[in-house]
Amino acid sequence: EYVNDYKKVINDKVWCVGPVSLCNKDDLDKAERGNIASISEHNCLEFLDLHKPKSVVYVCLGSICNLISSQLIELALGLEETKIPFIWVIRNGINKTEELKKWISDEDFEERNKGRGLIIRGWAPQMVILSHPSIGGFLTHCGWNSTLEGISVGVPMVTWPLFADQFLNEKLVTQVLRIGVSLGVEVLMNWGEEEKIGVVVKKEVIKEAICNVMDEGDQESKERRERASKLCEMAKRAVEKGGSSYVNITLLIQDIMQLQSTTKVET
Predict the structure, then answer these.
(1) CATH topology for 24-214?
(2) I need a labelling partner for 69 at 20 to 30 A (CA). Which of 78, 144, 234, 235 fits?
(3) Per-domain boundaries in the chain
(4) What angle do CA 228, 139, 175 make, to 5 degrees?
(5) pTM of the predicted model, to two decimals?
(6) Which SS3 state, helix, strand or coil, does residue 192 take?
(7) What pLDDT, on a 0 to 100 scale, did the predictor assign at position 217?
(8) Which of 58, 74, 61, 70 is nearest to 160 (CA)?
(9) In which residue ranges of the chain is pLDDT below 70?
(10) Contact predicate 41/31, CB 8 Å
(11) 54 conformational bin, left if phi > 0, alpha if psi -120 to 50, beta if neither
């Protein structure tokens, strides 16, 4: 229905394709999606292989996360208090990175969580991580790429939008598809106003949301995971031969070829 309505609005052809992340079958392509990872695929898999299926939460708030250090410290403490294994990506260049690194070092955060937590500084091989059987939840900023990647592997999410379309994407995940739990963020993290905005999510809220998503014994959590799994299967069928994405790519190629033929005839 949405596609048909969109065609009417723009009064033109529409080809819906994706999730494109599923088109990368090669492990190296997955590992280098978007950039060269700052940690080897082997190190990630070695950590994940130590843990049970669906027992690890993956935390990544995007390449341009602008949360202040005190907020990220709340995130760290919330993760620690869950007692759940985690992989946490801290991208280089984010606001107050050095302050956070100093806190992690001074508080022996990594040592305290040795074997249970893995911190990746820089770019992470996200699809390699999300595709691993040990991953049971994804704390995300709801960027469109990350949202689709989470859906394409059937992982339920904890949502923490920061700005732009991320708040709309969160509603899709939590209210329409019902495969995520919101942290309740309602304030846009506007650039230049981070210190003024301050801490918007406390560690207790972070802990509760993660535990909610990761609790396999809870009926609501189980149903959420089942919905995520069904969407994963739908996404896989879409990119397979005969699927909607496959068909649309074929139609797009045919349309381009037809346009080229018409142009040659006219010239």
Answers:
(1) Rossmann fold (3.40.50)
(2) 144
(3) 24-214
(4) 50
(5) 0.87
(6) coil
(7) 87
(8) 61
(9) 24-38, 93-96, 264-267
(10) yes
(11) left
